[in-house]
Design a protein that fits this description.
Blueprint lengths: L15 H6 L4 E3 L5 E3 L33 E5 L2 E5 L4 H4 L8 E7 L4 H11 L3 E3 L9 E4 L3 E7 L2 E7 L2 H20 L8
Antiparallel strand pairs: 1-2, 3-4, 5-9, 6-7, 7-8, 8-9
Length: 187
Amino acid sequence: MKNACVIPGNVVEGTLAKTIINEPKEVALMNATPKLFPQIKNCQSVEMYFNSEKRLAEKTPEVGETVSGLLVKKAFTYQIMAPDDLHVFSQLSIENISQRITIAYTGAFGVLEHRLKQILESVESLPDEESEGPAFRVHERLTVEYESEKHISLHWRSDPISDMVSDSVVALVLNISREIPKVVVES
């Protein structure tokens, strides 16, 4: 990205900032030259270039070196800091959220694993010592475990990508559950 535009949380009606905040594909500038704005998706890396003489953490980065961290806005200033320093320099903290969901599933556990392997790139069976029963891991982020003849459970550490993986697995499980043939016993 060659140019960047940082916009505050509140903007005045009728200004260029108000136009940009509505995420148009194109904006006519004062010189009437249309400017295209890329649409940034969730979890997409964004490169920002800064000219500064200040130090960042223990060492000053070299020109062109990539710096990663959290961009924190406090009052009217922005700081890039390591996640571990967040609680030291602000009143914010980072927490890990572990999620677990139990889903009704009466099909064969092997069928579920097979269907997931057809759709997703990385589905690996777990050794018995890593879980209480049959289990597999999806994209090294999500664990699917056989709970009983009627239930499976999903476990993951919450982050945007793991949440998307879990959503897709839940959708597939619910889809497979609908496809299981129903047996009707007539008397």
